[in-house]
């Protein structure tokens, strides 16, 4: 009876250990969350060798009243725009639980702290995507048949997976609508023309896409002009003029496009936008190369119809194993311990 109780307690402890396998990342390590002397590269370098998983925690150490932590969108991150944030934490140390996968962006919203490098971007992956589930399968095949999985490395002609990524370039995207300046809109920016240059720098504009200019009526307008008039902020002979907000401009041809506000003094103060428009967004030539590789792959599956599952099980485990592998070991140990408890 005592032995059964011990095994049950061991199973519970193992399960608890696996569930607590999240990682706590202290942003900047001993440097903390501050204006770094090395600029934005400081936090980029800090994050480069780390794996961030759903359930992990970021800890921002900073002095209250001098810094904060604001989670923002990518466009706000690129432009260091803290006008609209997803959330803001003002008390340090601030802990942020990573509850979703994908890219996440954090800045300090104080003054020019973000533009001086106090900004962090990370990519968060799902924990279950890192679970090395194929590992137990080779032992399932039993000791006598272990000779059969041995040939599988020689049968590992992996052209079959190569046919999968080939169709990836196939899908074509439709027209994209861009809101100029995002939440700031079309205004006289506080930091001059660099505001709209930064907004456009990370974007690709294609024929058929739409620009939306949000502004207050009778306070601003949108004029499409030539490069010479753009450079000199001359609005005497615009190519097109839009006076009713929100102004929607469909990009009908490729090449450089120039927009200014025609109200007195607005363009010299930075209310101007230059973009480059590329051709249509349809991209489908690359899938043509896939039929040759597809024709070469059928012979290899026909040679060993019974071995696809061992080949899948011999795939190398993913790089992010730490916490997930502990969780799997915990679950396996739990099942074995409970089974032993019933037998004893």
TrEMBL record:
Residues 23-126, 176-279 form the Phytocyanin domain. GO terms for molecular function: electron transfer activity; metal ion binding. Keywords: Copper, Disulfide bond, Electron transport, Glycoprotein, Membrane, Metal-binding, Nodulation, Signal, Transmembrane, Transmembrane helix, Transport. CDD domains: Phytocyanin, Stellacyanin. Residues 146-172 have a biased composition (Pro residues). PROSITE patterns: COPPER_BLUE, PHYTOCYANIN. It comes from the Eukaryota. Belongs to the early nodulin-like (ENODL) family. This is Phytocyanin domain-containing protein.
